[in-house]
Design a protein that fits this description.
The strands form two sheets. Strands 6-7-8-3-9-10 form a six-stranded mixed β-sheet, sandwiched between helices. A hairpin with a 2-residue loop joins strand 4 and strand 5. By secondary structure, the chain is α/β, with parallel strands linked by helices. Helix content is about 30%, strand content about 25%. The radius of gyration is 17 Å and the shape is globular. It has a single domain, classed as P-loop containing nucleotide triphosphate hydrolases (Rossmann fold).
């Protein structure tokens, strides 16, 4: 479904992402791991079209989308939840969700499955996003991305700053998303237990390059922990 080949990206004269090869198959969950500053967020932004690739290729279902604008990639089925959530604080939960539907290929309203996956948001639909707790805002950010009916959900640090009980809810929700909707997931995550509970495969980045790859079913999380510590 998603395939990256020899992707390079950076800022100014600096190269941050170096010769990245990565793939996500339909319905698969893939974790992208690494210390802060190794290029994970830059890579995600390059995939979704918010940052240009200097070289290499990004293919979506076999089609080259390396130079496609971000809105075109969203319409093709790639949804992105950035680090820090990126919700609109002055808009209500309902309005945030409706904005998410603008990227849906078929248009239409907010899918019924949003309320089923995020019952807390059903109770808060008329509340401004800015008054929600951190965990509620993260759920809103994920729900807004899902309102576009994507085929791939990309998440950047979904557990950052979230209390443990909400982390467990998000974990269960992501598992349900895969099971009932068949949506693939690519996530950047520092919390290894969370990543291991969701991912079918993982990649570890170091200094802009992929240095390890494998499956949580075959590798214990502690075997890669040293690559994530400062």
């Amino acid at each position: 479904m998603l395939e990256l080949t020899a992707i390079n990206a950076g800022y100014g004269h600096g190269r941050v992402v170096k010769d990245i090869a990565l793939r996500v198959e339909p319905g698969e969950a893939v974790a992208l791991l690494g210390r802060n500053g190794v290029g994970k967020t830059t890579l995600l932004r390059t995939i979704v079209g918010l940052h240009p690739a200097r070289s290499g290729a990004i293919r979506w279902n076999g089609a080259d989308i390396t130079r496609a604008p971000a809105h075109r990639r969203a319409a093709l089925g790639i949804a992105y939840v950035p680090q820090g959530r990126g919700i609109f604080p002055h808009l209500t939960v309902e309005e945030n969700l409706r904005l998410g539907t603008t990227a849906a290929p078929a248009g239409g309203g907010v899918p019924a499955y949003i309320g089923e996956l995020f019952p807390v948001l059903e109770r808060l639909r008329r509340r401004p996003g800015g008054v929600l707790s951190g965990g509620e805002q993260q759920q809103l950010a994920i729900a807004r991305a899902l309102a576009a009916r994507p085929k791939l959900l990309i998440l950047d640090e979904p557990t950052e700053g979230i209390q443990p009980s909400i982390v467990q809810q998000i974990e269960a929700t992501l598992s349900q998303i895969r099971k009932t909707l068949g949506i693939a997931i690519l996530l950047v995550e520092q919390y290894l237990d969370f990543a291991w509970s969701i991912a079918d495969r993982f990649y570890v980045m170091r200094r802009g390059r992929i240095v390890e790859t494998g499956s949580p079913r075959e590798r214990e999380s502690h075997s890669v922990a040293h690559l994530l510590s400062v």
